[in-house]
Amino acid sequence: MGLFGKEPDGKPAPVAPPTQRPAQPNAPSPTHPAARPAGSACVIGAKTTVKGEITGDEDVLVEGAVEGQVHITRDLRVAASGSVRANIEANSVIVSGEVLGDCTAAVRVDIQSTGRLTGNIRAPKIVIAEGAVFRGNSDMSPRQGEARPGIMTGPGGDKDRKVALS
After folding, report:
1. Distance of CA 158 to the CA centre of its chain
2. Maximal CA-CA distance, the chain
Protein backbone atom coordinates (compact mmCIF):
# COMPACT_ATOMS: atom_id res chain seq x y z
CA MET A 1 0.00 0.00 0.00
CA GLY A 2 1.25 3.41 -0.92
CA LEU A 3 0.64 6.82 0.49
CA PHE A 4 -2.86 7.97 1.44
CA GLY A 5 -4.42 4.50 1.09
CA LYS A 6 -3.59 4.11 -2.61
CA GLU A 7 -1.84 1.30 -4.38
CA PRO A 8 1.44 2.13 -6.13
CA ASP A 9 -0.35 2.16 -9.52
CA GLY A 10 -2.62 5.03 -8.32
CA LYS A 11 -5.80 3.03 -7.71
CA PRO A 12 -7.51 3.23 -4.30
CA ALA A 13 -6.79 0.34 -1.96
CA PRO A 14 -9.64 -2.16 -1.55
CA VAL A 15 -11.62 -1.63 1.63
CA ALA A 16 -12.38 -4.70 3.72
CA PRO A 17 -16.07 -5.05 4.62
CA PRO A 18 -16.78 -4.36 8.31
CA THR A 19 -17.00 -7.47 10.39
CA GLN A 20 -20.43 -8.02 11.85
CA ARG A 21 -20.91 -9.63 15.22
CA PRO A 22 -23.64 -12.23 15.35
CA ALA A 23 -26.71 -11.11 17.23
CA GLN A 24 -27.01 -12.55 20.71
CA PRO A 25 -30.68 -13.20 21.38
CA ASN A 26 -30.16 -13.90 25.08
CA ALA A 27 -27.99 -10.84 25.80
CA PRO A 28 -29.63 -8.45 28.29
CA SER A 29 -30.50 -5.03 26.97
CA PRO A 30 -28.90 -2.01 28.68
CA THR A 31 -32.24 -1.06 30.23
CA HIS A 32 -32.83 -4.54 31.64
CA PRO A 33 -32.14 -4.73 35.43
CA ALA A 34 -29.86 -7.74 35.00
CA ALA A 35 -27.55 -5.60 32.84
CA ARG A 36 -26.58 -3.44 35.83
CA PRO A 37 -23.48 -4.53 37.73
CA ALA A 38 -23.99 -6.23 41.07
CA GLY A 39 -23.98 -3.79 43.95
CA SER A 40 -25.41 -0.92 41.96
CA ALA A 41 -28.22 1.19 43.38
CA CYS A 42 -31.22 3.11 42.17
CA VAL A 43 -29.93 6.68 41.97
CA ILE A 44 -32.09 9.77 42.38
CA GLY A 45 -29.88 12.34 40.68
CA ALA A 46 -28.77 15.69 42.08
CA LYS A 47 -31.17 17.64 39.83
CA THR A 48 -34.14 15.34 40.46
CA THR A 49 -37.04 15.71 42.92
CA VAL A 50 -39.33 12.78 43.69
CA LYS A 51 -42.65 13.42 45.44
CA GLY A 52 -44.74 10.49 46.62
CA GLU A 53 -43.97 6.98 47.82
CA ILE A 54 -40.83 5.01 47.02
CA THR A 55 -41.04 1.25 47.53
CA GLY A 56 -38.71 -1.47 46.34
CA ASP A 57 -36.19 -4.21 46.90
CA GLU A 58 -32.90 -2.57 45.91
CA ASP A 59 -30.48 -0.05 47.36
CA VAL A 60 -31.44 3.59 46.84
CA LEU A 61 -28.99 6.51 46.65
CA VAL A 62 -30.52 9.98 47.00
CA GLU A 63 -28.39 12.77 45.55
CA GLY A 64 -31.39 15.01 44.83
CA ALA A 65 -34.61 15.46 46.83
CA VAL A 66 -37.34 13.08 48.01
CA GLU A 67 -40.61 14.11 49.64
CA GLY A 68 -43.22 11.63 50.89
CA GLN A 69 -42.65 8.06 52.10
CA VAL A 70 -39.76 5.60 51.62
CA HIS A 71 -40.33 1.87 52.22
CA ILE A 72 -37.49 -0.31 50.90
CA THR A 73 -36.14 -3.67 51.98
CA ARG A 74 -32.51 -2.76 51.22
CA ASP A 75 -30.28 0.22 52.14
CA LEU A 76 -31.05 3.91 51.74
CA ARG A 77 -28.11 6.29 51.32
CA VAL A 78 -28.60 10.05 51.42
CA ALA A 79 -25.59 11.70 49.76
CA ALA A 80 -24.15 15.00 51.02
CA SER A 81 -26.14 16.78 48.30
CA GLY A 82 -29.30 14.79 49.07
CA SER A 83 -32.41 15.86 50.97
CA VAL A 84 -35.18 13.56 52.21
CA ARG A 85 -38.39 14.92 53.74
CA ALA A 86 -40.09 11.61 54.45
CA ASN A 87 -40.67 8.86 56.94
CA ILE A 88 -38.21 6.09 56.11
CA GLU A 89 -38.36 2.33 56.56
CA ALA A 90 -35.30 0.46 55.27
CA ASN A 91 -32.79 -2.24 56.10
CA SER A 92 -30.11 0.40 56.83
CA VAL A 93 -30.09 4.19 56.52
CA ILE A 94 -26.84 6.09 55.91
CA VAL A 95 -27.18 9.88 56.10
CA SER A 96 -24.54 12.22 54.68
CA GLY A 97 -27.06 14.89 53.63
CA GLU A 98 -30.31 15.99 55.27
CA VAL A 99 -33.27 13.91 56.50
CA LEU A 100 -36.42 15.39 57.98
CA GLY A 101 -38.69 12.58 59.19
CA ASP A 102 -38.71 9.40 61.26
CA CYS A 103 -36.27 6.58 60.39
CA THR A 104 -36.94 2.92 61.11
CA ALA A 105 -34.16 0.50 60.17
CA ALA A 106 -33.89 -3.25 60.62
CA VAL A 107 -30.10 -3.15 61.01
CA ARG A 108 -28.73 0.37 61.62
CA VAL A 109 -28.95 4.11 61.14
CA ASP A 110 -25.62 5.83 60.46
CA ILE A 111 -25.42 9.64 60.51
CA GLN A 112 -22.08 10.61 59.03
CA SER A 113 -20.14 13.77 59.88
CA THR A 114 -21.87 15.85 57.17
CA GLY A 115 -25.31 14.39 57.94
CA ARG A 116 -28.29 16.10 59.57
CA LEU A 117 -31.31 14.13 60.81
CA THR A 118 -34.37 15.72 62.41
CA GLY A 119 -36.84 13.08 63.53
CA ASN A 120 -37.05 9.92 65.58
CA ILE A 121 -34.81 6.90 65.02
CA ARG A 122 -35.75 3.30 65.68
CA ALA A 123 -32.96 0.80 64.97
CA PRO A 124 -30.98 -1.79 66.91
CA LYS A 125 -27.72 0.05 66.05
CA ILE A 126 -27.29 3.81 65.77
CA VAL A 127 -24.05 5.53 64.77
CA ILE A 128 -23.70 9.30 65.04
CA ALA A 129 -20.33 10.58 63.81
CA GLU A 130 -18.56 13.59 65.27
CA GLY A 131 -19.88 16.69 63.55
CA ALA A 132 -23.22 15.10 62.64
CA VAL A 133 -26.46 16.77 63.74
CA PHE A 134 -29.31 14.72 65.26
CA ARG A 135 -32.45 16.25 66.71
CA GLY A 136 -35.08 13.79 67.94
CA ASN A 137 -35.52 10.63 69.98
CA SER A 138 -33.82 7.29 69.53
CA ASP A 139 -35.14 3.81 70.28
CA MET A 140 -32.70 0.91 70.15
CA SER A 141 -35.07 -1.74 71.49
CA PRO A 142 -35.48 -4.84 69.32
CA ARG A 143 -38.46 -5.05 67.00
CA GLN A 144 -41.50 -6.91 68.23
CA GLY A 145 -41.08 -10.65 67.83
CA GLU A 146 -37.29 -10.47 68.16
CA ALA A 147 -35.59 -11.76 71.28
CA ARG A 148 -33.76 -9.25 73.45
CA PRO A 149 -30.02 -9.84 73.82
CA GLY A 150 -28.93 -11.34 77.12
CA ILE A 151 -27.69 -9.03 79.86
CA MET A 152 -24.91 -10.08 82.21
CA THR A 153 -23.10 -8.23 84.91
CA GLY A 154 -19.62 -6.89 84.31
CA PRO A 155 -16.37 -8.18 85.78
CA GLY A 156 -16.34 -8.66 89.53
CA GLY A 157 -20.12 -9.02 89.71
CA ASP A 158 -20.60 -5.24 89.57
CA LYS A 159 -24.37 -4.94 89.15
CA ASP A 160 -24.14 -1.36 87.90
CA ARG A 161 -22.02 -2.40 84.90
CA LYS A 162 -23.99 -4.29 82.29
CA VAL A 163 -22.80 -5.80 79.06
CA ALA A 164 -25.20 -6.62 76.25
CA LEU A 165 -24.66 -9.93 74.48
CA SER A 166 -25.60 -10.12 70.84
Report:
1. 42
2. 102
